[in-house]
Write a structure and sequence with these properties.
The structure is a single chain. With 145 residues, this protein is an alpha+beta fold. It has a single domain, classed as Aminopeptidase. The protein contains four helices and seven strands, in the order E-H-H-E-E-E-H-E-H-E-E. It has a seven-stranded mixed sheet. The N and C termini lie far apart (29 Å). The relative contact order is 0.15.
């Protein structure tokens, strides 16, 4: 039984573990708490029977613009609707807030994620050369609501 709800500080360990497994990144834990402070309604977790299996973290860039910072799901939970449930809840929150556009960055070689975002109406706006810490290029993607 999948449920999407706002992030709470006690979810921190699960979010850090998902980032390490799914995104291969190691950010300081303070980053997640800062994101939570910046826009609480834009930091969502998906849980199954009390276990966090994915999350979406975003910020408001301007009154009518948001940016998805991270969307990650444990590998074992992919293709089960977790990412879609998170994105649906997030876009609903954006609509309630009057957000007009959402942007995000994605690794150029992450075709699975690019297809997912494209299904949600995101389009590649431009290339971000050497955007990631390992030197990989990224794409800036944008969707208008």
């Amino acid at each position: 039984m999948l449920r999407v709800r706002p992030f709470a500080p006690n979810d921190l360990g699960a979010v850090v573990a998902i980032v390490k497994e799914a995104l291969r990144e190691n950010y300081p834990t303070s980053l997640y708490l800062d994101i939570h402070k910046w826009w609480r309604d834009g930091f969502l977790v998906a849980e199954n029977m009390g276990t966090v299996v994915g999350f979406l973290a975003s910020v408001m860039m301007a009154p009518e613009q948001s940016r998805i910072l991270m969307l990650a799901v444990y590998q074992a939970w992919r293709r089960r609707g977790v990412g879609s449930a998170l994105m649906d809840a997030f876009l609903n929150e954006c609509a309630l807030r009057g957000v007009k556009s959402v942007e995000l960055e994605v690794r150029r070689r992450n075709q699975e994620a690019i297809r997912f975002y494209t299904r949600y109406g995101f389009q590649i706006a431009h290339v971000l050369p050497k955007f990631y810490t390992d030197g990989e290029d990224g794409f800036k993607m944008r969707r208008f609501l």
